[in-house]
Amino acid sequence: MKITAELEPVQCEKRKLRRAIALAEVERRNDDVRSLRQRFASLDRDSKTARLERRLAQLEPRLEKSSDPEDLKAINRQRVEAFYRCE
Question: Is the pTM of this model over 0.85?
Answer without folding.
Answer: no
